[in-house]
Amino acid sequence: MTFLLIVALAAVQESPQTTTDTAVVVQGVVGQVATAGGSSWLLALPTPFKYRDHVIAELVLSGDNGRWSKFNARYVEAHGVMERAPIAGSQPRAALRVDGMREIDPQGTVRKSVSTSFTQRVAIVLWVLPRTIRWRDEEGKSTGVGPAIVYTMNNHGESALTLTFESQDYVCYSVEPIKGNAPAWHYARQFQEPRDRQIMTLPPFVREVATIPPDAAPEPGRYRVRAGFCGFTEYQLETEIEVVK
């Protein structure tokens, strides 16, 4: 399964002790990716930023890889020092030496609890990053933005959650303009085995991610974003994003 990584740059300032390293505070999702030599832990940026004439889209977490496993697939705030810029101008990756990390909620997170019985208590969460999207810069070039919708379910109840789905569709997403008559964009995560009816006992924790393509929100304006288990309105949440010129 492909893991989608997201990060928002919160602050950047030059370190007073050195002219070669830069202190940063970053927020995003921690994830592990395969490399030729094994694997690396990364933070990747939906909105790349410029660092010493390089456009940075990913930060490699340097140091002991065992430190990051407890944060896998979690949204965190990390502070540390960028140790090096890419050697090649086209390489969108730099290294980050992390001094501290903590799990946080992304700005704009929406959540609710669903209780269908005395033994079930399900918490669902939805967030989108970035919430303000600019597809192209002043010169008309792509900004490389990669907005993503993240939907999670956490079952805190005593019994498992079992749902009957009418199709192969599992988690459904939509993006539609708040004003205007433009058609809505729809996407669904699907079960691996195609069957007409799927009776599924869900794991205690579910996290599903969908990337918003430019044609889902092509014009400037505000858009309504929805996500939830397909066919179950009680498990649906919604939020808003804005596209700017």
Task: Write a structural description.
With 245 residues, this protein is mainly beta. The protein folds into 2 domains: 7-103, Beta Barrel (OB fold (Dihydrolipoamide Acetyltransferase, E2P)), CATH 2.40.50; 110-243, Immunoglobulin-like (Sandwich). It has strands at 7-14, 22-29, 31-35, 38-51, 54-61, 75-84, 93-103, 110-117, 120-129, 132-133, 148-155, 162-165, 169-177, 185-190, 198-201, 205-211, 221-229, 237-243. Strand 8 and strand 9 form a beta hairpin. The protein is globular. The two termini are 34 Å apart.
Task: Give the topology string: H per helix, E per strand.
Answer: EEEEEEEEEEEEEEEEEE
Which architecture of the largest domain would the CATH scheme give at its second level?
Sandwich
- Per CATH, the superfamily of the largest domain is Intracellular proteinase inhibitor BsuPI
The count of strands amounts to: 18
Uncertain stretches of 5 or more adjacent residues: 1-19
CATH third-tier fold name of the largest domain: Immunoglobulin-like
Which secondary-structure class do the elements indicate?
mainly beta
Distance between the termini: 34 Å
Gyration radius, in Å: 20 Å
Principal-axes geometry comes out as globular
The largest sheet, given as strand count, sense and whether it forms a barrel, is: 7 strands, mixed
Mean pLDDT: 82
Quaternary structure type? single chain
CATH class group of the largest domain: Mainly Beta
% residues in beta strands? over 45%
